[in-house]
Amino acid sequence: MDKIDELISIIKESDNIVFFGGAGVSTESGLKDFRSKDGLYNEVYDYPPEVILSHSFFLDKPEEFYKFYRDKMNPNSYKPNIVHYVLTDLEKSGKLKAIITQNIDGFHTAAGSKNVLELHGSVKRNYCMDCGKFYDDKKVFGSSGIPKCSCGGMIKPDVVLYEEALDNKVVNEAIEKIMKADTLIVAGTSLVVYPAASFIHYFKGKNLIIINKDTTPMDNTATLVVNDSLGKVFEKIKNSTIKS
């Protein structure tokens, strides 16, 4: 039995699966990640991307922030991929109880998944920093300069920037879901970004599965490690698990 077949067998035997996904889930749709050799951090800008995407830079130089944000963070010319759709099917089957994602593109929801915990927020939601009014992403990506609310306040994407804390409610729910899971599937993440990577330590279930092209610091604690592309893995899961 190869590793993907072993994974399929585990999915079939599981009743409470939680999926924890990183940038590798979105790169299957064509989006760039941050840390790979072709990622945003290895491109050249006037300021380093990790500086541009910080809370202090957003407040100090909002026009520069939005220039980068519109150019590099807009997912709307891309679509959900097979990973998103297979997870939706697994959720409908009752096996998958939650999706915990570090991505901000909103693709899990767009693919039809309901129980999605977005650790780093979503570009799909934006709010006025003065009055709190919410706007969709069309308001931000369709504007120029600094997007403003009808009240005149500056609009901020509802995403967690560097120097900002994760939402406690989302964090607590994510930890609770992980603690209750019998199988945790970790996919498309290097498991080096904290605090998100630390969530894996709360898992006390039977099967810890890691699917990633490269090795991760948690590989030696996993039940099963699959070093392959997510597209290939989930294509095989779709053809085997969902139909059974």
What descriptors fit this protein?
244 residues; 34% helix; Rossmann fold; 3-stranded antiparallel sheet; SIR2/SIRT2 'Small Domain'; alpha/beta; 6-stranded parallel sheet; 2 domains; 9 strands
Any overview of this molecule?
The protein is of the alpha/beta class. It has 2 domains: 1-31 and 80-120 and 165-244, TPP-binding domain (Rossmann fold); 32-74 and 123-159, 2-Layer Sandwich (SIR2/SIRT2 'Small Domain'). Helix content is 34%, strand content 17%. The protein has 10 helices and 9 strands. The strands form 2 sheets. The protein has a 6-stranded parallel β-sheet, sandwiched between helices. It is elongated and about 60 Å long. The two termini are 18 Å apart. The model has no long low-confidence stretch (mean pLDDT 92).
Question: TL;DR of this structure?
Answer:
By secondary structure, the protein is α/β, with parallel strands linked by helices. It has 2 domains: 1-31 and 80-120 and 165-244, 3-Layer(aba) Sandwich (Rossmann fold); 32-74 and 123-159, 2-Layer Sandwich (SIR2/SIRT2 'Small Domain'). The chain has helices at 3-13, 23-27, 49-52, 55-60, 62-72, 82-93, 107-110, 137-141, 168-180, 230-240; strands at 17-21, 96-101, 116-118, 121-128, 134-135, 155-159, 183-187, 207-211, 224-226.
Strand numbers in spatial order across the main sheet? 3-2-1-7-8-9
- Percentage of residues in helical conformation: 25-40%
Number of helices: 10
- Report the CATH topology name of the largest domain: Rossmann fold
Structural class: alpha/beta
Low-pLDDT segments, ≥5 res? none
Rg, please?
A: 18 Å
For the sheet with most strands, the description reads: 6 strands, parallel
CATH architecture of the largest domain: 3-Layer(aba) Sandwich
Shape, please?
Answer: elongated
Averaged pLDDT: 92
Which class of the largest domain in CATH terms?
A: Alpha Beta
Terminal CA distance reads 18 Å
Question: What is the subunit arrangement here?
Answer: single chain
Order of helices and strands: HEHHHHHEHEEEHEHEEEH
Amount of beta strand: 15-25%
What's the total count of β strands?
9
What number of structural domains do the residues give? Answer: 2
CATH superfamily of the largest domain: TPP-binding domain
